[in-house]
Amino acid sequence: MVFQQENAAVHSARLSNDFFQENNVALLDHPACSPDLNPIENVWGWMAREVSDHGCPL
Q1: How far apart are CA 28 and CA 19, in angstroms?
Q2: Beta bridge mates, 3
Q3: How far apart, in Å, are the Cα atoms of 54 and each of 23, 44, 47, 49?
Q4: E strand segments, the chain
Q5: How do residues 13-22 score in pLDDT, each as one tens digit?
Q6: Angle at 54 between CA 53 and CA 58, to 5 degrees
């Protein structure tokens, strides 16, 4: 198994990295500031744009 995480500062802290190394956890290389891979977040964004385009305030 490979663990996936974004490279946010809290995820790339020394304590976190030490834990993964000590427990032989493989990490997927993931660039910092990459697009959100969570599909529901993209759906919420699409829905907000649709509502806004039809003149309804959010």
Answers
A1: 15
A2: 27
A3: 51, 16, 11, 9
A4: 2-3, 26-27
A5: 888 889 999 9
A6: 75
Query: What pTM does this model have?
Result: 0.48
Contacts 24+ apart (CB under 8 A), 29-32: 30/4, 30/5, 30/6, 31/7, 32/6, 32/7, 32/8
Distance between CA atoms of residues 41 and 58, nearest Å = 16
> DSSP of 22-53, one letter per residue?
HTT-EE----TTPPP--HHHHHHHHHHHHHHH
Whole-angstrom distance, CA of residue 37 vs CA of residue 47: 17
Q: What are the tokens at 36?
A: 């959100």
Q: Which two tokens stand for residue 2?
A: 């490979």
